[in-house]
Design goal:
Residues 31-149 form the Thioredoxin domain. The chain is of the alpha/beta class and 166 residues long. 43% of the residues lie in helices and 21% in strands. The radius of gyration is 18 Å and the shape is globular.
Length: 166
């Protein structure tokens, strides 16, 4: 019984340590919205012009910075695609993943139907100080309210969208 109690305490300490390190890494890698972002229009691969400010007014907007070459993204992108299919407010940015035709081909092969802004040279991502893929940014009513980098689960992103409403 004492052994089980000790293992339980060690597990709790380990979990707290993992959470602390994760939060510290998010803080160190935190993106910064550029000063002019509310008025800057973005063009999707589908040819639609979007405004982040307008998209984030009524409900939180999840912006997913990813890349076709990113190993971790292959675990997060299916969850983002599921959020899009469920009607969540999502926009994605393909970072240094080739020209628009290459990104569209990659999306088609994977069966993803994502609203994508192509960032072939990484200029847009650099403006947001995105240093890690994948990175998730949540905007609500014209403000960046949450962000995380690295792997995110479907439920983790869903929870972040829900929490951003408060």
């Amino acid at each position: 019984m004492n052994r089980l109690k000790r293992w339980g305490k060690e597990l709790i300490v380990l979990l707290l340590l993992v959470v602390a390190v994760s939060l510290a890494m998010d803080w160190l890698r935190s993106p910064q919205a550029p000063a002019n972002w509310p008025g800057t229009p973005w063009q999707t691969l589908a040819g639609k012009t979007v405004s982040l400010s307008e998209m984030s007014q009524e409900k939180p907007l999840l912006i997913y910075f990813w890349a076709t070459w990113c190993g971790v993204c292959k675990f997060t992108t299916p969850s983002v695609n599921q959020l899009v299919q469920e009607g969540e407010n999502v926009l994605t940015v393909a970072l240094r993943s080739g020209d628009s035709a290459q990104v569209e081909t990659w999306l088609r092969k994977k069966g993803y139907q994502l609203p994508v802004i192509n960032d072939p040279q990484g200029e847009l991502s650099a403006q947001w100080q995105i240093n890690v893929t994948p990175t998730v940014v949540i905007l609500y009513q014209g403000k960046m309210v949450q962000h995380t980098s690295g792997w995110s689960s479907y439920w983790g992103m869903k929870l972040r969208l829900w929490l951003a409403s408060f």
